[in-house]
Structure formats: C-alpha cells, structure tokens
Amino acid sequence: MKWSEICVHTTNEAIEPISNILHETGAGGIVIEDPIDLITEREDIFGEIYELDKEDYPNEGVYIKAYLPMNSFLGESVNEIKQAINNLLLYDIDIGSNTITLSEINEEDWATAWKKYYKPVKISSKITIAPTWENYVSQTSDEIVLELDPGMAFGTGTHPTTVLCIQGIERYLNVNDEVIDVGCGSGVLSIAAILLGAKSVSAYDLDDIAIESTKQNAKLNKIDKQINVKQNNLLDNVNKQSDLIVSNILAEVIVRFIKDAWDNLKEDGIFITSGIIKAKKDLVKDQLKQNGFTIIEVNEMEDWVSIVAKKSESPR
C-alpha cells in the first residue's frame, strides 16, 4: 500500500491544534520536526536515542508530518485539512507560513519514517515513556514505564505540554486520589496518574479516535479497569467531586470550563492545565483567579506554559 506524507510548515503554537486536525482526518503516525530538538540535551541512557539530521528540519517554525492512505478520498482529505488549519486563524492561533506539501511514500518506509523518532524517554523523576515495540525495562526500582502506541493518536507523549502535565501530576497527586482528565487524547495523562497512585480516572474527550486510543493504551498498561473513558464535551454535565483535574488543551478552551473545573473539585483540589502558549499565560491565570483558584505554580518549557492552581476560596 502506498501512503502520502503531508507536511505542514507551521509554528510551535499551532502544533497541538494541527496535530488534532490531522488525526481527525484519519492520519497515522504523526511526526513533529522542531529544530529545538537538534540542540536539546537529553540523558542518553538507552544507547543512541536521537539520530537527527539537521537537513530534515526547518530554519524556523516546525514541520508536522502525517501519513494518509493514497486512495480516491486523498484530495478531499487534504482540502479538509487545509480548510481546518486556515480556520485556526479565527481563534487567533498563529499558523505561520502554513506551507503544505505532499509526497508519496511506500508502506515499508512509512513504518520506519516515524518510528525512528520515538525511543524511550524519561520525562520526569519517575516516568519513562516507551513505545510498545521497544520492550524497555525499568532501570531503577522507582522508575515507572508508561507504554504508548503513538500510531493510534496524538503523538509520542513527549511534547513539552505533556511533559509539564505529567511532572505536575507527579508533584501534586496523592495516593488514591480521584482524577479527571479533560481532553484525554492518547490517554497518557490518565495512565500516568494511575501509575503514580491514583485510585481512578474519569477521562473525557469529544473525539472518537481519542476515546479509542485512550482505551487501547490503558489496556497496554494493564490499567483499563481504573480508567473510565467517556465521550464528552469538556466537563459539560459532569458532576463528580475529584481531587485533581488535569487538562492539556489550548488556552482558549481551558478558560471555557474553569468554572466547571471548580465545581468538580473537592476543597483544596488541584487543577493542572497545559497546552498554553506564553502569550496566553496571563489570560488563563486571570480567569483562574477570577473563579477563586489560587495559583501555586507556573512552569515553562520551550514556548509552552503549565499552570497549577488550587481550589481555595469561593468564586467571585
């Protein structure tokens, strides 16, 4: 079978929404080529993890590559992708040059084209994310291995927004906490919460692909009984008192359900948000404060921000 590689030249700000658009169109195996990876120092404890060629990377911005089957619907799918990306401008999302190119690739090449980018990576003091085909074994007694199949949906779990969320969960989650994951995507945050000691997770997403991906990745980690996955729009009609809520979504979306997050948290409950570009940091902080949250931490990684807040007073 032949595949078409679609490459979108865009900005860091647009990575999450464009990746989501590509997944919703049925793309498999998304790759993000960010020139920051060429200079990022990583602990090389697995052998040669990153064998990167600078010729594959743009001088500015990022490449987002995905793979679509070459069939009679290809042209229609590409047009849908282009329109959806252009619509991001309505949400004040900088899409950069938005240059889109297509190239043909054989299935054998497709299988390795994106897998070569994905090796086990330690993203917090305890959590290492590993692809299912690596058969990686923890190196220390306290290392937790989270298995992920990135071919299902939503990337490798090592994007800065995901890393910031998991690091926040690791710091603030208590054993037997009840957790809500809003916009669960691949389920990586839900799985991390359970592996770190949560009693249960209620995972919500509007996307069918995300629901199925979360279920499959939960099974891979043998914790599917503890994660209740449901199709839902944010926290609409959810009435559940939780200890911790985590959400890795765009800032514009986070501010829409801050009040619902408040209502679904226990007293002194923790709300961890990410997916926020630096320019939108104050927008989210102000809305959290206006709804009675106390800001505990603001953490940054590359161009991304994560905010940790506590339910501490009645909203005004």
The CATH superfamily of the largest domain is: Vaccinia Virus protein VP39
* Strands ordered across the widest β-sheet: 10-9-8-11-12-14-13
Strand content: 25-35%
Count of separate DSSP helical elements: 9
- Which geometry do the CA atoms define? globular
| CATH architecture classification name of the largest domain | 3-Layer(aba) Sandwich
- The radius of gyration over CA amounts to 19 Å
Helix content: 25-40%
Please give the domain count: 2
Low-confidence stretches: 38-52
The CATH class of the largest domain is identified as Alpha Beta
Give the topology string: H per helix, E per strand: EHEEHEHEEEHEHEHEEHHEHEE
* Number of E strands: 14
Mean pLDDT, all residues = 85
Structural class: alpha/beta
* Major sheet summary line: 7 strands, mixed
CATH fold naming of the largest domain = Rossmann fold
The first-to-last residue Cα distance is 58 Å
Short description:
It contains 9 helices and 14 strands. The protein has helices at 15-24, 74-87, 107-113, 160-172, 188-195, 208-220, 251-254, 258-263, 281-290, and strands at 2-10, 28-33, 62-69, 99-106, 121-122, 127-131, 144-148, 178-182, 200-205, 227-231, 242-248, 265-277, 293-301, 304-311. The strands form 3 sheets. The chain has a 7-stranded mixed β-sheet with strand order 10-9-8-11-12-14-13, sandwiched between helices.
